[in-house]
Amino acid sequence: MAQTHTADFRLDDGRALRLTYAEPDGVVRGGLVVLHESRGITDTVIGMVAGLASEGWLVVVPHLYPSGSHEVAEEEARDKVSALSGDSVLAATDIGFAWLAAREVALDRIGVIGFELGGAVALVVAARRDIGAAVTVAGGGILEPLSNGLPALVEVAGELRVPWLGLYRSDVESPSAEEVEKLRDAAGSAQVATDVVRFPFETGAAEAWHRALNWFDAHLR
Prior knowledge:
The protein has seven helices and eight strands; from the N terminus they run βββαβααβαβαβαβα. The model has no long low-confidence stretch (mean pLDDT 94). It has helices at residues 43-54, 74-82, 86-101, 117-126, 153-156, 177-188, 201-219; strands spanning 4-10, 16-22, 30-35, 57-62, 110-115, 133-137, 164-169, 194-199. Residues 21-200 form the Dienelactone hydrolase domain. GO terms for molecular function: hydrolase activity. This is Carboxymethylenebutenolidase.
């Protein structure tokens, strides 16, 4: 399994952010920005980063919270999520893109993937930035935004600029089947390839992983 590292990264214009990253052992297939869940850089996020790097991707996680902290408690996470805005998450993701660009990864070979909070942010990024592809895993905020500063996903899904895949469990109450179907309809009006898949818990983790990898293989060339 690839090793992960954390460091501060500063752009020439003075913008700076803490990043967690992992590098593949062999040839770099492309770059992936991983957007973390509401509790920050958890063991689940670290496992995803290491796993993606082991598949040949150069992977970076922008720390979306200003403190740059790793995992935070559930109560603190709610406060941090409520402080996020569309501008703040795009600014953080842009620094992740810049980190990959500094390592000679072209934009059309860069993808973004997020889980839970990060899944919602991944769709927002995919509607505002020209990269290669995006994947949302279990992202909330479909009909009601996760914070006052973030849009509801159905409001921006029709504006998707890059191929987007949404992966959702079918055995949970939130987001509901109705919400996911409304998101599917909204995304279907975009001028790019989109897909939404719902699956049961029993096959969920493995299926989501393989579908995400296949999506990036198909669109990051």
